[in-house]
Amino acid sequence: MQDEVGRYVITHKDRLLRLGADLVFAICEDKQAEVVILNQGEDTQRESGFEEAGIQHQNYLCVDLSKFGGTEKRMTETRAIQPSDLYQLRALAEPQMSADGRFTALVVIAVDKEQDGYIYELHLMDIQSGHVSIISSGANKLRSPRFSPDGGQLAFIVSQEEHGEHVYVGETSSLSALSNWTLNEGTLAGAKFKDLFTKRKLAAELSWFPDGTSLLLAQVSSTLPDVKEYANVYFKTDGTGLLRQVETQFWLVPLEGEPRQFYKQQSGIGTMAVSPNGSEIAFTVQKFPGKGSWEADIQLVNVESGTVRPLTDSNGPIRAISYAPTGNSLVWLGHQSAASYGTESLWMTDLVSGQSRALLPQFDRPIGVIQKGDVSPVSGTDRPVFSTDGQSVYFVAQDGGPTHVYKVGLDDGTPVRLTGDAQRCVSHFSVSTAGDVLFVSSTPDKPEELYLLRGGIEEQLTGINQAFCKQVRLAQASRMVFQGADNWPIEGWLMLPPANTSTANTATAQDAPYPLVLVVHGGPHGAFGCGFTLKHQALCGSGFAVLYVNPRGSQAYGTDFAAAVIGDWGGKDYIDIMNAVDKVVADGWADGARLGVTGYSYGGFMTTWIIGHTDRFQAAAPGGCVSNLISFQGTSDIGKHWGPKEHLANVYDGFETLWARSPIAYVKNVNTPTLLYHAEGDDRCPIGQSEEFYTALRDLGTEAVFVRYPGGSHSYGTTGKPSYRVDTQERLNRWFREKLGSTKSTVSSKKSP
Ligand SMILES: CSCC[C@H](NC=O)C(=O)N[C@@H](CC(C)C)C(=O)N[C@@H](Cc1ccccc1)C(=O)O
């Protein structure tokens, strides 16, 4: 305890006794560290099997050292971060706060190395005392924790493979008195939980009816025959596979008594919400299920009669719907554009007229979580929330790199940013009735933690990844603005390998120029941002500088910027990217003779495009790439409706245009050693796209390696088997080390990054 600990928090006194209480007290007194015993009673649950689940439950001990003002110092020995650190990192999701602001619920996800899967925990924290009860569902996915309107109950869903999906509910006060519990095979042995409702498959969400006596759940069943027959242009979706016959049933599930099915339909649903008086449900449906396009509509169903009323006649996607407290309108995320680069904004629909209007007509930025780093296997939580007085709406938006929580008045259209001005990424948020904002946030050099914004003051509530951060050297990201084609400003970030010192995470300017790996994002209408990205950190940990930029086409810089890549893949986007590379080489940060390039999806397209147009890179690693825009249109799940809009050409009357923009057309020019990687189950950019490019490279005698991951989907790199995720990054690190080396080279003057 070298003055590193400000407060020693112990959950149960008997644990301290086992450690030798007198000795601990004496050391703490000597070092002026405070001892806090959260629970004076005996720790009767300690042998609940929680440890077997492989999670360290002392996580919150680390947190509070900084929260309570303890001096935070780095351990004397740190090590380079590596791909397998995915096994150490935790993802945080779906934060919720009880109505009285006393409790928070949070889903914490860890990687289970042995089972090659994920472990889910529900953390219930008493904000005042800091006491945390942890309910582990092990390898069973736990989601949708929701407090009842008065905060007295907490419900959540656990998916248990062959046992179906279970909805559990318990009293918040009893749960918060628990220490740690492990959920086994459908029962919460000994805990004060009710196993309320079970179905084979439930839609993602769970909602309380306003009187707190029942829950809304949607059951989804689907069938897929052996021999499939399709008569629509659309027949598959990446991630879920071939189109199925789907039925959705809405259930009202009382805490006491029999569940009642009040409506069913022969199609799936998107999101749903309960009206403030509980009489009606709003839900979204796909508008043209056989077309594969993204238009959705809102429908309303009466809970008593089961009658349905269509509300909207929308031209674009609709998701994340929320009722106004008056029950007169709904807000949602989506857009009304036919373009392939349509950016989601914040909309409000009047429940009488069905008319919709944009609440942020001048704020041309994507609303919602569009990037959140690459650790978490689950999507962001970004449903807009009305203030209790119904006069304004809270939402998250990405403006350039950072993603923040904002608030907008219903009639003023000007967003006010609420979260601090750090280069940060808010990935999940919720708002209490008192207006407290609970959110999960990360930065390029700090993984996800939970924060509370109350009365204008922001407080970090957890330190779940803090112990890990103290073990490793993390690279910092320096924001830069480059000059792109037509002199457009192009935002990017340079990360340098952190110095091998025990005192700081600072980069070693004296070691420049570094071998550099350029990383290109997907989309092209994705965007890099400020989320913690293990890919970037692990490359830096291997000794590379990492450059990532948002070329034209990226979201978060306005519609015109996103549109500027349409019909021009490999054109000015390529110049934007290469100008950034030129700049960091010219400024002495990167060694122009040791350059690597990698990217996924559209980033894989750009990687294969780059090596067909320049020999400046010594190694390339395209992942989940598109190499042939012609075969893409007939084989990708979105090929037919999205491809022609993006490339302004289709296979029948724009063959030459598509060919001219296809990396495979330039494969003869490639001299760069290339490692291709792809998931075999990818239906977005089917593996044939890599097969075509790899086959041509080998046929032409160019050095190439092809790595195939069984199953999975286009998103296997964040949602797939952890061992495949780690393997991918280890191969990338090895490939670039082998081709670029990672040691210091000589020369060069440099400017500040
Ligand atoms: C629902 S249509 C959106 C398609 C989306 N493009 C957005 O710009 C997309 O899936 N793009 C693929 C590549 C394309 C099929 C050639 C892609 O790059 N996906 C990336 C990232 C991404 C996904 C969705 C929206 C933005 C970026 C990926 O999956 O990593």
Automatic annotation (TrEMBL):
<keyword id="KW-0007">Acetylation</keyword>
<keyword id="KW-0378">Hydrolase</keyword>
<dbReference type="InterPro" id="IPR001375">
    <property type="entry name" value="Peptidase_S9_cat"/>
</dbReference>
<protein>
    <recommendedName>
        <fullName>Acyl-peptide hydrolase</fullName>
    </recommendedName>
</protein>
<comment type="function">
    <text>This enzyme catalyzes the hydrolysis of the N-terminal peptide bond of an N-acetylated peptide to generate an N-acetylated amino acid and a peptide with a free N-terminus. It preferentially cleaves off Ac-Ala, Ac-Met and Ac-Ser. Also, involved in the degradation of oxidized and glycated proteins.</text>
</comment>
<feature type="domain" description="Peptidase S9 prolyl oligopeptidase catalytic">
    <location>
        <begin position="533"/>
        <end position="742"/>
    </location>
</feature>
<dbReference type="InterPro" id="IPR011659">
    <property type="entry name" value="WD40"/>
</dbReference>
<keyword id="KW-0645">Protease</keyword>
<dbReference type="InterPro" id="IPR029058">
    <property type="entry name" value="AB_hydrolase_fold"/>
</dbReference>
<dbReference type="Pfam" id="PF00326">
    <property type="entry name" value="Peptidase_S9"/>
</dbReference>
<dbReference type="InterPro" id="IPR002471">
    <property type="entry name" value="Pept_S9_AS"/>
</dbReference>
<keyword id="KW-0720">Serine protease</keyword>
<dbReference type="Pfam" id="PF07676">
    <property type="entry name" value="PD40"/>
</dbReference>
<dbReference type="GO" id="GO:0006508">
    <property type="term" value="P:proteolysis"/>
</dbReference>
<dbReference type="GO" id="GO:0004252">
    <property type="term" value="F:serine-type endopeptidase activity"/>
</dbReference>
<dbReference type="InterPro" id="IPR011042">
    <property type="entry name" value="6-blade_b-propeller_TolB-like"/>
</dbReference>
